[in-house]
Each structure stands twice: as structure tokens, then as C-alpha cells.
Write a structure and sequence with these properties.
about 300 residues, single chain, about 15% helix, Jelly Rolls, globular, about 25% strand, four-stranded antiparallel β-sheet
Length: about 300
């Protein structure tokens, strides 16, 4: 950890291969909802053992490449394709609403048991998926395909209340295959501004964020098994670095709202909220007592 105030900071040397510390970031069983809830509340994120069925995860992994290649088995197409800057071969694939084009991804998203665990973590009576992003990071040892430091909340200012991201690994994510990096406790800062996702310099001194004096930048990398999740608060700072392996890294960033969340106005980004295929309600227990086990 080091102090990151409004003045310039001295960046400590990172470990081998420019990785960051993994200490104290352990994968927790989905049956230990108390520990997951405490880590989510205290750190702004938590990491689970596999929650989604391996066959459904494998089918969605196959579908990811089909969607990336422009295929569809639903008759619909994703909302948007994005990529890193430059004309070189694409190393970072970002596709908005991949489930528009894939029944396998839709089936994975609707798996009921994981959402009961997630409902306990955020103490919700209802969970609805309102957006999904597919990320594929091709092997790339340089910083070219990095995802820059950002919070998710400023990209969705039309939501008021409890939204969060479930980052689902479609294949094992190791310390070398571009794991998510979190700044522990950064969700307590609240919204600090919209950032450039494709800014590749991950030096914390170069974020451009107005960080308060005395804030300790405690950066950790999280490894996630296939079917497991890294789940984070809307205001948690996170990023990802290079994929130094020989295989692509696949994940779904699933954007979720709870019953304690309302949308302001009629933003086009959530015009599909009433469509059960594109914005499914994946957990709905209106009589659940806060703090009780999800059913």
C-alpha cells in the first residue's frame, strides 16, 4: 500500500512481470455468504469459487468466439463492438450485449443458483441484468490491450441506487492472463469521475482522478476460476493489464440492479428493460427478509 493524495506520489516497484500483490485475495465458496458479504462491503469486491455450471460455461465460451466473429443463433446482433486504438490486429475485443446474439449466453445468464448467492451478498429481494459486456483479451505482453483504471458508476449515471458488476470468468483467469486489478476500499470514495477505458497506463499516479489526501492505494490482482465471479461495487476502482499467456482470456461483465435501484428518465441504454431475453430478472423474492438466506 502507499499513500495517494492530491500531490505527486512515489510509485513502489511492482513485482516480477509488472504484476501486483495477490495477498489476502482468496476465492471463497458460494456457501460462505457471510464472508462474501463482508468482503464486498469492506473491500468493494469479492471473489467466488465456481458458481455457474461448467457445461453452461463451456457452451458460452464457444459462443463467445462465434459472436466475436459476427455470428448469431437468435437472429439478432450485439449492440456494439469496440476495440483498442490503432490499426494493428485486434487484441482487445469488447462487445456490448453479446446475449442478443447467443442462446448459450442467455442460458448461462439465467442460471438460478448463482443469483441466490449473489442476492445474499448484496442483500437483495430482486436482481435484474440490465447490460452485459463480453471481453476477450488476446495474448499480448505489452500494455496495448490494457483496460484503464475506472469506476463503472459514471458510465451509467441514469441509475440511482444499488447497481454492481458480476465479472464472470468463462475460462480460468491466472495472474498472467490479465486478471482484474482492484483498489481495495476505493468504493468508499464515491463517484470520482468518468475515465477512458482504453487508457493503457496503469500507473496510479497517472489516473487523473482527484484523489483525497491520505487515501491509501492498496492494489490487488484477483485470479478467478472458470465459472467463478469477481463481483464489485459501482464505485470500486478497477483495471486490467496485459495477457502474457498463449491463450485468450474470456469474461462477461454482467451489469445488475437490485430492488433498491431506479432509473432516471428514459435512457436508450436501458430501453430493453421490459424484454425478458435481453434484461432478465434473475432473482425475485419480494418477501425475503433482509439479512436472511436467499431462497
Amino acid at each position: 500500500m502507499f499513500n495517494l493524495g492530491s500531490s505527486a506520489v512515489e510509485r513502489p516497484p511492482l513485482k516480477d512481470k509488472d504484476t501486483v500483490s495477490e495477498e489476502d485475495v482468496t476465492v471463497v465458496s458460494g456457501t460462505d455468504s457471510d464472508t462474501l458479504r463482508q468482503r464486498y462491503a469492506g473491500d468493494g469486491f469479492c471473489v467466488t469459487a465456481p458458481l455457474f455450471h461448467p457445461e453452461a460455461v463451456a457452451a458460452a465460451l464457444d459462443a463467445a468466439e462465434l459472436v466475436a466473429a459476427g455470428g448469431t443463433d437468435t437472429g439478432m446482433m450485439p449492440r456494439l463492438h469496440e476495440r483498442e486504438a490503432g490499426e494493428a490486429p485486434q487484441r482487445l475485443v469488447k462487445i456490448a450485449e453479446p446475449h442478443n446474439a447467443s442462446n448459450a449466453i442467455r442460458r448461462l445468464l439465467r442460471s438460478p443458483e448463482p443469483w441466490r448467492v449473489i442476492a445474499e451478498i448484496v442483500d437483495a429481494r430482486m436482481l435484474q441484468i440490465w447490460a452485459v459486456d463480453l471481453f476477450i483479451k488476446r495474448p499480448e505482453p505489452s500494455a496495448r490491450a490494457n483496460i484503464g483504471w475506472h469506476q463503472d458508476g459514471p458510465f451509467a449515471p441514469y441509475w440511482h441506487g444499488n447497481i454492481f458488476t458480476v465479472w464472470l470468468a468463462l475460462a480460468d483467469v491466472s495472474v498472467d492472463s490479465s486478471p482484474l486489478r482492484y483498489v481495495r476500499g476505493s468504493h468508499r470514495l464515491g463517484p470520482i469521475g468518468k475515465a477512458d477505458l482504453f487508457r493503457t497506463d496503469l500507473d496510479p499516479a497517472c489516473t487523473g482522478f482527484p484523489m483525497p489526501d491520505g487515501f491509501e492505494w492498496d492494489e490487488v490482482a484477483v485470479t478467478v476460476p472458470a465459472g467463478g465471479i469477481a463481483m464489485h461495487h459501482r464505485d470500486t476502482l478497477h483495471a486490467s493489464g496485459p495477457n502474457r499467456t498463449s491463450s485468450s482470456r474470456y469474461s462477461l461483465a454482467i451489469r445488475v440492479r437490485t430492488d433498491r435501484c431506479q432509473v432516471e428518465g428514459n435512457p436508450i441504454q436501458v430501453a430493453h428493460l421490459s424484454d425478458p431475453d435481453l434484461a432478465p430478472v434473475v432473482y425475485d423474492q419480494p418477501d425475503r427478509v433482509p439479512g436472511s438466506a436467499a431462497r
